[in-house]
Amino acid sequence: MTTLSETPIGRLRWAVADSRTLTVRALLHWARRPGDLAVGLLFPVMVVLMMGYVFGGQMDVPGGGGYRAFIVPGMFAMTMVFGVETTFAAIAADAARGVTDRFRAMPAASSAVIVGRGAADLLYSAASLAVMAGCGLLIGWRAHDGAARALAAFGLLLLLRFALVWVGVYLGLLAKGPESVTAVQILVWPIGFLSSALVAPDTMPGWLGAAAEWNPMSATVTACRDLFGAPVPDGGSWAAQHAALMAVAWPLLITAVFFPLAVRRYRALGR
């Protein structure tokens, strides 16, 4: 006789329940370490203030417009990309301490550990965006085209973060320990800076600007600037001219590649 847990619907319910439990576990860890949480949320605020006040008066935006309106969407996206390091460190630390092995020994859905981690990191990223948006409003940034378009922009930012969660999970499961985060930084920081987040790609050498325009982060930044009503430098590539489409397509492609890889890697641990 087939039990409910052996049916597709039963297995899905089981996976959702396990994922919810592990999401709550991660959130409780943050609640027990409010200092770490505060520092994590204040860092992007510091970056926004530094870029807005230290560099804001020295930078010209191609096509006109204020640099603060230009830079704030870029800093939103930078925070989403740098979140890969947070996911990586958490997954690698659990693996190094044997926590992941204990989870694997439990009768839990194999996807629940990484889905729970991903959901918690997405909630943390949403909180970071809220704090950064508040800081941006204080320094004069505004979403000029209405609440609906602003919410769409925040949705694109979280979609990018959602995709990069699985990159962080996969790399964390490959790593020997959280100290390997330096290798992730070597990967992530060029992606963050070789984009349209801080400067317009047409100010770069031709080949470098073309690479920046095809950067997944640039697609999200450009689409968000348009949705917020911020200055959007003209781009010559197909990717720059269809930024909204690419801001959806890139995260879906990254998720389609790295989520199965992360699940497969988790199942292969200890073999």
Structure description:
The longest helix has 30 residues. This protein is mainly α and 271 residues long. It has one domain. Helix content is 75%, strand content 0%. Helix 2 packs antiparallel against helix 3 and helix 5 packs across helix 6. It is built from 11 helices and no strands. Keywords: Antibiotic resistance, Cell membrane, Membrane, Transmembrane, Transmembrane helix, Transport. InterPro entries: ABC2_TM (IPR013525), ABC2_TM_bact-type (IPR047817), ABC_2_transport (IPR000412), Nod_factor_ABC_transporter (IPR051784). Belongs to the ABC-2 integral membrane protein family.
Our count of domains comes out at: 1
Going by helix content, strand content and strand pairing, the class is mainly alpha
Please give the count of helices: 11
Helical fraction? over 70%
Through-space gap between termini: 32 Å
Pattern of helices and strands: HHHHHHHHHHH
Looking at the structure, what is the overall shape? globular
The largest pleated sheet is described as:
none
Name the poorly predicted regions. Answer: 1-5
Q: Taking all residues together, what is the mean pLDDT?
A: 80
Cα-atom Rg, whole angstroms?
20 Å
* DSSP strand count: 0
Give the DSSP E fraction (strand runs of 2 or more residues): under 5%
How is the topology of this model organized?
Layout: H1 8-32, H2 34-54, H3 67-96, H4 99-105, H5 112-138, H6 147-174, H7 181-193, H8 206-213, H9 216-228, H10 238-241, H11 243-268
Helix pairs in contact: 1-5, 2-3, 2-5, 3-5, 3-6, 3-7, 3-9, 5-6, 6-9, 6-11, 9-11
Quick structural gist:
The chain crosses the membrane at residues 37-55, 67-93, 114-139, 151-174, 181-200, 243-263. The chain has 11 helices and no strands.
